[in-house]
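Here's what a typical entry looks like (Large ribosomal subunit protein mL60):
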Amino acid sequence: MFGPFRASHVNSGGLLWKIPWKLSTTRKANARHRLKKVDAVIEAVRASGVQCAALERALELPKEHEMPARDKYTVFSPHARGYRKGIHKVPKWTRITQRTNPKGF
């Protein structure tokens, strides 16, 4: 019961995912590179002459060089202190677009 072989708590067991509290410089560079690649794809589709609603929505998004660092690396969160949290804490953050935030945040 009280020794080296005591039972552990249920919430302490299982796979432990450790998410760092801030993005490293390498992960920031990779995020910027990903944004630039998405911008290049959007521009290539626009140059090809294709017309669709998804392209119109994509053209309204800010480009990587137009975004402040705050929007590149953090997202709005109503539950976080300061209403911002690191983008790497969002599930599937490398696959979804998080370029726009509510006005004033």
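The chain has three helices and two strands.

More examples are in the samples folder.
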